[in-house]
From TrEMBL:
Species this protein is from: Kordiimonas sediminis
Family of this protein: Belongs to the FlgI family.
TM annotation in the entry: 12-32
Role: Assembles around the rod to form the L-ring and probably protects the motor/basal body from shearing forces during rotation.
Protein name per UniProt: Flagellar P-ring protein
UniProt cross-references to Pfam families, sorted A to Z: FlgI
Entry's localization field: Bacterial flagellum basal body
Amino acid sequence: MQNALLAISKKLWSVVAISIAATIILSTPSAANSRIKDLVNIEGIRENQLIGYGLVVGLNGTGDTLRNAPFTDQSLKAMLERLGINAKDTEMKPENTAAVLVTASLPAFARAGTKIDVNVSSMGDAGDLKGGTLLATPLMGFDGEVYAVAQGGVAVAGFSAQGEAANIVQGVPTNGRIANGGIIEKEIDFELSDLTSIKLSLHNPDLTTAKRVEDAINGYLGTSMARAIDPSTIQLDRPLGYELPMVNILTEIEQLLVRPDNKAQVVIDERTGIIVMGSEVRISPVAIAQGNLTIRITETPVVSQPNAFSEGGETVVVPRTQAGVENDDDRRLSVLPEAVSLQELVNGLNSLGIGPRDMISILQAIKAAGAMQAEIKVM
């Protein structure tokens, strides 16, 4: 009997322990935490923009015209000269050729021979790039060096069709893409593993977040390797005698969880009526009255005609005007209490029965009155 009671007691204690553990897990603000990997950019790990000028050939009469795009004719003749064909005195009509700008992004640590996607955009008056082929085009970086070469068939999502009296265009047929159309020819020299110091740049600069990242890294590694030097930058200095390379250190710390801290902000897009408020927004007690006075004037003219066979009569337009005034008498002065959370602030504004457009004006008026402890950004 005692053994049975002891077993039941152990089971009860197990259930209680599991319940307590579940409560602790649910009560921790893990949902608000983010990985360091998602909060920062690592110095040296970045893309580089490439650009080039080229020709797309093989178009079905939808290329550039000589009158509006003389550079296409010049580029075509120069290309033929490089291929050993004399075309200086030849009058050309490059209706099947279009001059294009080619853009691409060079990934970080990309090696020679790696293929990348490229974008092709018409810079003349070509109507459609569908079915065209981009000729070998060097892609240069900001320093003027060639880092990749692009070539291949252009894939266009949009299309255009034209008849005698009407035409239809869907999407952007003058912009296309070549999947794996670029081949990297030159690498950017940068050795991450040999660095003894590196900087982490926060996406959203904030002093509190920078200090939390510093504490999380130092607490995990057990050293004073991280140091927040400004609201945007955390510097990592590898201590003397620390054997792990910088790549291993970054791999370990980028999975650490940190709760970011942001300033209280209200972002307003007046064009679309979108309002986004951060969870840190707070307001002081304030009274709000919101009402509208609408004056409506409707014109309904009536045509008056004389009776049949009448003499001297004429057709006239008789004006009919209806005027009225609408006043929202049910709108009263309302007191919006001090909000301790974003939900209470939203509930207080919604209780006034106002729409997004009026809410934008009210939020700006609350800020002007000094009752909102938040920054308003208007897009």
